[in-house]
Amino acid sequence: MAHPRGFTILAVCTGNVCRSPAVERLLRPVLGNSEGVTVHSAGLGALVDAPIDEPMADLLRAQGADVGGFAARQITEPMVREADLILPLTREHRASVVALHPAAVRRTFTLRELARLADQVDRDELAAASWPGTSPADRLAALVPLAAARRAHVPAELDDVVDPFRRTPQVYKESLAQIVPAVQTIAQIALNL
């Protein structure tokens, strides 16, 4: 079962103004603190205190996400140590996160990697692993080791989310199009949908 304090998800990208805030702001209202799950984000080279980059903020608003009150933060070793699940947006980010706190390796997945692996986990196996817990936090806590056991080498393009920062509107759309299905998969599993 999940920790009594709940379950913490940390999304990580480079500047913490495009990709990781998108994951945070799409997952947070679905899983929310009321369900025992906390979702936040940070950057490996954060543009500290910056808001979500406006082209990404516009796309997130179109998805119904709240983009207000966001301030980019620099990742720290305690953030990684305390998170139950770390979701970097690329393999390079994942390697940097693990370098900060090597013990986090088994709970650090790129966003798209976790979604892909989660699709391979049988729902009955997940239910048995999270029993007797039934909350999203319990299901996510059970999912992490089940997904880790299914890791396999795949091409980077299946794991990485393209960085749209200061690129064309089309690249922002492509980036969000890579994020949304992965977020939906993780949320559906957490909510047992």
UniProtKB/TrEMBL annotation:
Stretches of the chain forming a coiled coil according to its record: none
SMART domains: LMWPc
Keyword terms of this UniProt record: Hydrolase, Protein phosphatase
Family annotation (Pfam families): LMWPc (PF01451)
Keyword Iron-sulfur on entry: no
Domain Phosphotyrosine protein phosphatase I: 7-120
Organism: Georgenia thermotolerans
Molecular-function GO terms, alphabetical: protein tyrosine phosphatase activity
Alphabetical list of InterPro entries matching this protein: LMW_PTPase, Ptyr_pPase, Ptyr_pPase_sf, Tyr_phospatase_low_mol_wt
PANTHER family linked to this entry: LOW MOLECULAR WEIGHT PROTEIN TYROSINE PHOSPHATASE, LOW MOLECULAR WEIGHT PROTEIN-TYROSINE-PHOSPHATASE ETP-RELATED
Family under the similarity heading: Belongs to the low molecular weight phosphotyrosine protein phosphatase family.
Active site: C13, R19
Protein name, UniProt field: Low molecular weight phosphatase family protein
